[in-house]
Design brief:
With 146 residues, the protein is of the alpha+beta class. The chain has one domain: Gcn5-related N-acetyltransferase (GNAT) (Aminopeptidase, 3-Layer(aba) Sandwich), CATH 3.40.630. 30% of the residues lie in helices and 38% in strands. The chain has a seven-stranded mixed sheet, sandwiched between helices. It is globular. It binds coenzyme A.
């Protein structure tokens, strides 16, 4: 689906605030996202079509690599290539930092997300036991640029 990937603003956030939990099922609360927008080491983007926000994602610039904090597509817009476009943007921004890699955690049961990351060359490097709610394990996946 056609969409534009642009930097997220507080206005975007207030537009999706009321539907964040029901239509995006993101684990980031709106208040955390708001703090993220003020963090100089974070970069967040939204996927927009006809002024409608269809998804968003962000990265943190850490000491030695970039970390994908979140990538979420609106439930009724999945499997249309939007997650790929957001991830491509995050990879592009991470490459510009010259840090050499981009890392993320993904729930061991989240097959759609793992397939998305595999498609872009991320490799599983390890497991963080009981990372999610002290129950589910996380797979740590990294994409090296160099
Ligand atoms: C993971 C997520 C962001 C993918 O977004 P999306 O817009 O549906 O992804 P795309 O349409 O760009 O799909 C890209 C690839 O991902 C994989 N994929 C995505 N959804 C899939 C599914 N339900 N089943 C299997 N593979 C899937 C496929 O390899 C797909 O490529 P293909 O269409 O050529 O087969 C979306 O499912 C989502 O928002 N999930 C809930 C939040 C979440 O779990 N985020 C990840 C946190 S680590």
């Amino acid at each position: 689906m056609e969409c534009e990937i642009i930097p997220m603003t507080l206005e975007h956030l207030s537009n999706i605030d009321s539907i964040l939990i029901s239509e995006f099922d993101s684990f980031w609360s709106s208040s955390i996202l708001k703090e993220e927008l003020q963090n100089p080491n974070s970069k967040y983007f939204v996927a927009i079509n006809n002024s409608k926000i269809l998804g968003f994602g962000g990265i943190w610039k850490a000491v030695d690599d970039c970390h994908v904090t979140d990538i979420v597509v609106k439930k009724d817009c999945r499997r249309l290539g939007i997650g790929s476009k957001i991830l491509e943007k995050l990879i592009q921004v991470a490459k510009q930092t010259n840090l050499g890699s981009i890392t993320l955690e993904v729930n061991i049961n989240n097959i759609p997300a793992q397939k998305l990351y595999n498609k872009y060359g991320f490799k599983a490097l390890g497991v963080r036991k009981k990372y999610y709610n002290n129950t589910d394990d996380a797979i740590v996946m990294t994409l090296y640029f160099k």
